[in-house]
Amino acid sequence: MAPPRRILTASEAIARDRAGRRGSAPAPRHERSSLPDDVPDVYEAILLGPGENKIDVEVDTRLPSACIFTFRKEDHTLGNMLRTRLLKTAHVIFAAYRVPHPLTPEFMLRVQTDGEITPRQAVINASEALIKDLGTLSREFTKEYELRKMANAANQQHTE
């Protein structure tokens, strides 16, 4: 009887996959022969590496009450939603984001407040509001989808 398999962490799986490409371990199960060697692996766009932070905060000393947040493994989707939500906040003076390079999954969000709240608190408040809004959107979408499905089923029964 074979011993039970140990579950690998994401970092161990990445290291094992990289070792497999160098030839020191068996080749991965998926076929990669058609891809060039410099193509990044799919998981590199979503998994944090060892010691990598999801969000880094840097205080912007040129402006009062301003910070630059670097979000790793995220893209325009979250950047634009946060920027839009921050601009609707009463105490936020400025909010903008930029993606330093299109092949790097990260964006930088600059936030300046009027001093009543910190930029960090403004981002936290905007994130919580976004989570609430997306929950509402999900519930409303599901409700509408189910209603249309029932209406289509009723129409099909009525026409038969």
Automatic annotation (TrEMBL):
Domain of life: Eukaryota
SUPFAM superfamilies xrefs: RBP11-like subunits of RNA polymerase
Single Gene Ontology MF annotation: DNA binding
Domain DNA-directed RNA polymerase RBP11-like dimerisation: 67-139
GO cellular component entries: RNA polymerase II, core complex
Keywords for this protein: DNA-directed RNA polymerase, Nucleus, Transcription
Location of the region described as Disordered in the Swiss-Prot/TrEMBL record: 1-37
Record has Nucleus as a keyword: yes
Gene Ontology BP terms: transcription by RNA polymerase II
CDD domains, per database record: RNAP_II_RPB11
Principal cellular location given in the protein's record: nucleus
Location of this chain's protein in the cell: Nucleus
InterPro entries: RBP11 (IPR037685), RBP11-like (IPR036603), RBP11-like_dimer (IPR009025), RNA_pol_Rpb11_13-16kDa_CS (IPR008193), Rpo11-like (IPR022905)
Alphabetical list of PROSITE patterns matching this protein: RNA_POL_L_13KD
Family classification: Belongs to the archaeal Rpo11/eukaryotic RPB11/RPC19 RNA polymerase subunit family.
Protein name: DNA-directed RNA polymerase RBP11-like dimerisation domain-containing protein
Species of origin: Penicillium brevicompactum
Phylogenetic lineage: Eukaryota, Fungi, Dikarya, Ascomycota, Pezizomycotina
